[in-house]
Specification:
The structure is a homotetramer.
Chain A (H helix, E strand, L loop, with lengths): L1 E7 L3 H4 L1 H6 L3 H11 L4 E7 L9 H5 L3 E5 L9 H12 L3 E5 L6 H7 L6 E13 L13 E11 L9 E8 L4 E10 L2 E6 L12 H14 L10 E2 L6 H6 L2 H9 L2
Parallel strand pairs in A: 1-2, 1-3, 3-4, 4-9
Antiparallel strand pairs in A: 5-6, 5-7, 7-8, 8-9
């Protein structure tokens, strides 16, 4: 079974009645419930208010794929935790930042860029168009998904060009957004997925759940080689072969 | 004129007689001399031993392209300086880390990965093969460049897949290396270029100088739009149009 | 001066009064007029009704960048002409297919895929969003361009993932489209640009003209190396060195 | 079970005693034998000398992944067969051209470029370095594979930049080569893999077989959406909304 940890800031749900109505068990609870139906995953949740944000070494080291939702309190995640998450991704853990987690510390550190965008809360319609239908993350999807209301995000999204661009979103108010972005980083894989604003029931949808399941399967640790690094012996004693040429080369050919 | 700043750690040249013989004026001095021949650039140099590493706000803010050579003392560059360099790149400054600067703070921060590799000092031959001959960085180059002796680097190089892979190096001892890597990051451009170890006169070569000149031209700040970020108005009042549907949507369609 | 050849099918303008009103001198005439204002180019035009489609060897061999508009009569372009265009691109000529030229023979041959898409003629609004503001094709552009009415295209667009995705279009009817796509192919560069339906005055716009000018500058032949191909001598007599090992290797190590 | 068809030109093995000793049952036979050990595939073979090259509609339409080895007689494969293969790939079939199949008709058609390279038959050593260890095609591989003797290929390899570059080969004679190249084309996936010259027992190796198995798993048809194409209705009657503006727009705003 794949070990999935769902991390949630878990603040809106406690502070806003409107949000609490949509996500009474928190966004993490909704995602856990939807993913849990299949029995395919060993699911844990973790939130900002837990000790070490719920991301102890024990939890992180036994996590195959980490899903992350955060918005208002990115800066409350300690740098050391964010750095641990980054290191785990580089060592092979899958990472799926959702929606406003594009500004979360671990994602920003992994991208190297500022990751800002345009945004607007305006109850607009979003259409998520599939751009690469043969990608494993598009398994069992229709050619587009329509969300009746979502927060609007707009380009330019300050990210490195994705290794694979899977989805582009259309918003009724006039914007587009690269809303499904795949990255390989170190030995790990990162899938940024744009929806789900806290005020809309996006994470209860079967199609969104399908995407998360596909992304978990895609992002789980690979079974490839772990490269050796640092000093490395030559295939054979190359130096001896070239030794005789050294002085003349240095003196006549290209040293000044 | 393009404002080029050449940053050098400048330690090997002062501490090793062997290196001092090759680069009596420092690696920065050699690059400055070679680039200066054409009179095309406004060149400054900066070193680790200068105040603020020679990278004051005044210098950075008036730099179009920053070349960076570092090796032993990456950690002596203060985090704030490294962060300032990163921010300047994201705002449009070109950045050309050379050789062991693949482990420099600004490059690692911009990549998000660990950027380690294999290495060996063995006087091996390097052949730098042109992979994308139509790229502007390949202007006036032959199809490969042979360096009689260089430090060997080997894959796996822990970088994000380059936006454009321009050169691949062959080493006589059995390794390959992605030695010319282009990245767009924020509004800036980054070109990582693999050669020149401090013990070899690589930076006096005309072909290497040609590559640096091509890279400067490619990496200099663009004249494209500076995107607006943050809250952004809709094209028209989309919300009103959908307002009437809210409750039914929430109750019947896809809320639980 | 850059030699620009503008190829146009030139049928709609002769057969439809509505189109003739918008483009009395043909789409090629309008583009030629707009590009010609700066005096930077040596401009020729060619049309389907000319001998050899106006693309004789003499014309093609002296063309730096070929702009191509076609729609109804792609199949009337002889295969040999399309193949000549492809060969010229692979040898270094820039190629800029516009709008419905995504289904033109030379583009389809260069892509290898079918290049179909969704479409609708519905007088919708198009917003072309800049995704990579530091790319040379975005020089002097605003962050988006709004076309009050255009033909709508929609994903999925059956193209190889672009080497660089520069623009994404938003359409008021609910679609998105990768509308500025850069490819390196052989020694040549290809820029697919989505607008200009024949019924709208898109090609008279200054912003569209700016994009074409940027694309010409980007796509013009490079001055990089022309790689040698075919049989190629080894650096040194490698075979001799390994000769002695042949038989044992074959017998014992990995032959069955 | 995945339906794998192995196509082989099957000429060298019949005409050269040396090759016949290495591949007494043909290269296709060796690959079939190695892949067959696991019982995971439904394997068929097809050769140039069969009717329709063994690639009847029935065979092609029931093939999930097509492996292709060819060298001397690329031009003997009829254009219609090559086109059928291309169409099947674009419709979702996986395609794995091996070694000199980089010049096979189906691969060249799918790439759009000429796909030539340097080459030399010199019994050189090849080291295939893993560049993207987390890619599914690298499952259960070491960080590099050493082939004691192989035909040498060298860059520049005239291909579109791969969507994902998995392997780079080093050759003892001084060349490098992009030897593991992933492409998505239409709904299908293509993996070009550089080794095995007909004179060496490369296809009997367990590591090479592992790569082929990984590639089959990666390239098999996806279960993603099949996009609709052609005319497509708007989300709502957008045209009506903009209708009133037409004339003024055309007259005053941006028509000449």
């Amino acid at each position: 079974m794949i070990n999935v940890t769902i991390w949630n800031e878990y603040i809106h749900e406690k502070e806003s009645e409107k949000v609490a109505q949509v996500y009474p068990n928190g966004i993490h609870g909704a995602i856990a419930e939807m993913l849990g139906k299949s029995g395919e995953y060993n699911i844990r949740t973790a939130t900002l208010d837990m000790e070490e944000c719920g991301l102890t070494d024990e939890v992180l080291n036994s996590t195959d794929v980490l899903i992350w939702w955060g918005h208002m309190k990115h800066s409350d995640v300690p740098d050391e935790i964010a750095e641990k998450v980054r290191q785990r991704v580089l060592a092979g853990m899958g990472f799926i930042p959702l929606h406003s987690a594009h500004l979360s510390k671990p994602f920003v550190k992994l991208m190297g860029t500022l990751c800002r965008s345009k945004w607007r809360e305006n109850d607009e319609k979003e259409r998520i168009w599939v751009i690469e239908p043969s990608h494993p993350i598009c398994k069992n999807l229709p050619e587009y998904i329509e969300l009746p209301m979502e927060e609007t995000y707009g380009e330019r999204f300050e990210i490195p060009a994705p290794d694979e661009l899977i989805f582009i979103s259309w918003f009724s108010g006039g914007e587009v957004f690269r809303s499904g972005c795949c990255y390989k980083r170190g030995l790990g894989k990162v899938f940024y997925f744009r929806p789900g604003h806290e005020e809309y029931p996006t994470f209860y949808r079967d199609d969104i759940t399908q995407i998360l399941k596909n992304a978990i399967e895609w992002a789980k640790p690979s079974e490839g080689p772990v490269p050796t690094l640092g000093h490395f012996e030559a295939l054979e004693n190359v130096k001896d072969k070239f030794e005789g040429q050294d002085e003349s080369l240095k003196k006549h050919t290209y040293i000044k």
